[in-house]
Design goal:
Helix content: 10-25%
Distance between the termini: 24 Å
Largest sheet: 6 strands, antiparallel
Radius of gyration: 13 Å
Structural class: alpha+beta
Length: 114
């Protein structure tokens, strides 16, 4: 995760544009049969990335479920081409050209609400 992401856990990713879905699939897992209905359009993916909040790896591991279902694609963040992945459990990551990742989540999908 980028240093800026660690500094402000309530942050959004700025200026996500050109969101394009390139792949829909599932990890090899016993629950993968439930993934056939998990699909996102470019607009839906763009809306998710715009509203998702930056989270820490600790939050991802302890406060959110994992789902084998994913949608992957490309976008531009602050002028940089990026890859992204959104999971059915309401989590996501953005992968920057240098390999750093920023973790995101829809906070309404947290398992343990405060």
């Amino acid at each position: 995760m980028s240093g800026a992401a660690c500094a402000d856990q309530a942050a959004h990713i700025p200026e996500v544009t050109g969101v394009s879905v390139t792949e829909t699939g599932a990890e090899a897992h016993r629950d993968a049969l439930h993934c056939r209905d998990f699909k996102l359009t470019n607009i839906e993916a763009s809306q998710f990335l715009a509203k998702a909040k930056v989270i820490s790896s600790h939050e991802l591991h302890y406060e959110y479920s994992w789902a084998p279902c994913y949608v992957r694609g490309t976008a531009t963040v602050s002028g940089q081409p990026v890859r992204w992945e959104i999971r059915a459990a309401g989590t996501a990551k953005i992968i920057f050209p240098d390999g750093t990742e920023t973790l995101l989540a829809d906070k309404s999908q947290r398992e343990k609400q405060e």
